[in-house]
Structures are given as C-alpha cells and as structure tokens.
UniProtKB/TrEMBL annotation:
Top-rank taxon: Bacteria
Keywords: Methyltransferase, Transferase
Family annotation (InterPro entries): Methyltransf_25, SAM-dependent_MTases_sf
Residue spans crossing the bilayer: none
A GO BP annotation: methylation
Domain Methyltransferase: 51-151
Pfam families: Methyltransf_25
Protein name: Methyltransferase domain-containing protein
Molecular functions per Gene Ontology: methyltransferase activity
Taxonomic source organism: Mesorhizobium retamae
Length: 219
C-alpha cells in the first residue's frame, strides 16, 4: 500500500502519539517491552537471508538484528512517519543503511514488492505492534503471505498476565490504554487458525508469568 493509501485516522493517531515520544521511546520502553531480545536471538536468519519487521518503530530492533546477523538484508515498515524519522537516524548511526530499506506502509495491507522490490522474506517479525494495530489479524495473514518457503513469522507482544496479581493487571491495563495499546486476548487462537490455513506449524510460549507472549509460525 502506498503512503497515499494509508488509513488516515490511524496514521495520524500514531504520528500524534509518537511525535514527541519517539525521542524517549527506546529509553522508556526497555523496562516493559519484555521478550524483544529473545525474539531477535531466535530468528536464526540464514546466511545472506532477508528479514522484515512489521511496525519497525524507532529501528531499535532492526539495529540489534543487524548486529547479531551481520550479513542479513533488513527491511522495515511502519505507518508512522514520525517513527520512521527515528528509524532512519538509528540505521544511519549503525552504519547499516546499505543493507536496510525502510518504508511507510500499513502492516495489515502492504505490497512488499512495490515497497522494497522483494516479494518474500526468510524471516518476518512483529514486536509489540499487534496490540496497537486495528484489524491486527490481517497483519498476521499478510505476514504469512509474505514469507518465503521455509520461512518463519515471529511475534512478541503483551500477554494476558495470566499468572500475575489482579492489581498488577489492572494497573498495566490502565497504563497501556494511555498509549492506545490493547493486548490481544485471541492472539493464540488467531495464530493457530492462520497456521492451520497455511499449513504452517506454531510454537507458543508464555514469558514472565504471562506478561508477554512469544510465538513462532514456521512454513
């Protein structure tokens, strides 16, 4: 989807949320966006392989992926033009602009070939973005459709805090609502359904007593 075709309301909302927050996003989020580094360490990108992040935000995850997989080709898309400003700066600081491509697009409906000149990717990951995307189920389907044969989709996001105290769950829920974040209660069911539909396998892990969920769908 081109920038002109982006859903205007959500794009404007995200730009409004992150216009100033992007400057402190990585510093503050490291304390509660748990499981991101575990996701990156588990990507196991093949030599010279390609990896796409849906909802790449500030570029923090792509930069860490580049360090861990020095010959990987990196791609990222985000609906927020404000976040992409930070992402491009991060990519430049890391010195990986030559093997990284960024684009503004909707993660629920994107044309990777038009955006990047690449139709399919060895790895695709979504880190704490599904909980902010309206119609997030379409992002799962779009990600699986963009996988190369033998590829895998990796997802980390807020869980339902199943084994944490009720007071903690209430406080976290109230805090997340301030940032338009809604943990997806049906995440596992949607991943199971999409995996079955596409003939893929699913592994699903609860982290930190259900604070976060980490899933991998392998084609």
């Amino acid at each position: 989807m081109s920038a002109q075709g982006l859903p205007a309301n959500h794009a404007a909302l995200m730009d409004g949320v992150y216009r100033w927050q992007r400057h402190v996003y990585d510093l503050t989020r490291k304390y509660y966006l748990l499981g991101r580094d575990k996701l990156i360490s588990g990507l196991d990108i093949p030599a010279g392989g390609s990896v796409l992040e849906l909802g790449c935000g500030t570029g923090r995850n792509l930069a860490l992926t580049a360090r861990r997989y020095p010959d990987a080709r990196l791609y990222g898309l985000d609906i927020s033009a404000e976040m992409l400003v930070s992402a491009r700066a991060a990519i430049a600081r890391e010195g990986i602009a030559g093997r990284t491509s960024l684009a503004r697009a909707d993660a629920t409906d994107f044309d990777a070939l038009a955006l990047f000149g690449v139709a399919h990717f060895d790895r695709i990951f979504v880190s704490y973005s599904l909980s902010m995307i309206p119609g997030w189920e379409k992002t799962v389907a779009a990600g699986l459709a963009a996988l190369a044969p033998g590829g895998s989709l990796h997802v980390v996001d807020f869980g339902q805090q199943e084994r944490l105290p009720n007071w903690f769950r209430s406080l976290l829920s109230a805090w997340l609502r301030k940032f338009h974040v809604s943990p997806r209660e049906s995440l596992r069911e949607v991943l199971e359904s999409e995996s079955a539909r596409s003939g893929a396998s699913l592994s699903f892990e609860r982290l930190y007593r259900g604070y976060a969920w980490l899933a991998v769908v392998r084609r």
